[in-house]
Amino acid sequence: MKLGITGGRPLQGEVVVEGSKNSALPIFAATLLTDDDVLLQGIPTLKDVQTIIAILEHVGKRVENLVDGSYRIRSSGQLSHVPPPLLIRRMRASFLVLGPLLARLGEVAVSLPGGDAIGLRPVDLHLKGLQAMGAELEQRDGIVFARAKSLQPAEIHLSYPSVGATEHLMMTAALVPGRTVIRNPAQEPEIHDLADFLRGLGTGIELHSTFMEIDGCPELQGTTHTVIPDRLCAGTYTIATALACGEVFVRCIPWHLRPLVNTLREMGVQIEEQPDGLVVTHHGAGVYRPVDIETRPYPGFPTDMHPPMMPLLALTAGESRLRETLYEDRFSYVKELCRMGADIRLWGQTAIVRGVKELAGAEVQAKDIRAGATLVLAGLSARGTTVVHDEEEHIPRGYSDLAGTLRQLGAEIEER
Questions:
Q1: Active-site positions, per UniProt (predicted)?
Q2: CATH superfamily of 21-226
Q3: Would you name the residues annotated as active-site residues?
Q4: Residue stretches of the annotated binding site for UDP-N-acetyl-alpha-D-glucosamine
Q5: Binding positions for phosphoenolpyruvate
Q6: In b/e form, how buried is each residue of 131-158, taking b as 16+ CB within 10 angstroms?
């Protein structure tokens, strides 16, 4: 896939942000906890969603695609304890089926996961938490073999507030009678969305600032759940408007984007917060101010918004610094942005960005989801035409239709 973007076109209109991929994937995995019917709504049309659906169907679920992003998940009989390794390796979230299958079946063999090549993302916190609940684990040839006659409630302390580990242990504990306590859990909005889904199944969950309590049940019921809007997509369109000029209403949950919005306002971006979204306005007057950014777990600045911010930093009047603290290989896009005229130097995990007057169109390569979106955003403000090569189709793994949405707002962008 190739995208051609002609810069200099202002954006105008409204974006209804799609459902959150990072909510949908763990919630799909959590449907393994019950044999009852589950109806999920607001699901984005993404390659990764199709992957998790294929995994569910391989292990014994029937998934019916309804209309407008709705799916009904039903039991088709006996669950399998061996999910297909090739599908598991396609993305990281697929590993989350391990805990629910272990809680249901008492044994499971799951391949170690794949996903974007943005650095080491080990699953040790997942496994340590499962061991604390009584799982016996063994790794051989890239496969995790897990057994447990009966999982037990436990008090688990995460050395790092990992989103994936928190989700994995939450959904596993949902089927374990008694109270499991997770200390230092992740606090992302997607964690709260998963908690709401598990409550719908019949699990008791209380979320606190530094810990959560899960009161599990031996049998869970069906439910209907609508996933939250994707804050990362909303953030992408917010930054796109700041880069391209114009005025766009981004329909989303505003407080989910507050760490990003605070930084953009510090730079001088005009953002009005409304109950159901953000009005982003930029008419080209003035130059944005440089800022220093450090990525942190929520409620800090989100690592997934680090790459899309870089074209904006590249056009500020002065020097900005961006320090990545979560993933060591997040900077795959820097060389490509420099081909467009950006002045970026890397010092370890810190990017030093000196603002330039303009970016120029170039042929560039997408290396992961956010890197691909970053180069598209850079093309919106660049002089001339930018061609983003995405042979491995990273962008469709994170955005249902990035090009189409931007085109509806007035961008000149085409698939080639």
A1: 116 (proton donor)
A2: Enolpyruvate transferase domain (3.65.10.10)
A3: 116
A4: 92, 121-125, 304, 326
A5: 21-22
A6: ebbbbebeeeeeebebbbeebebbebeb
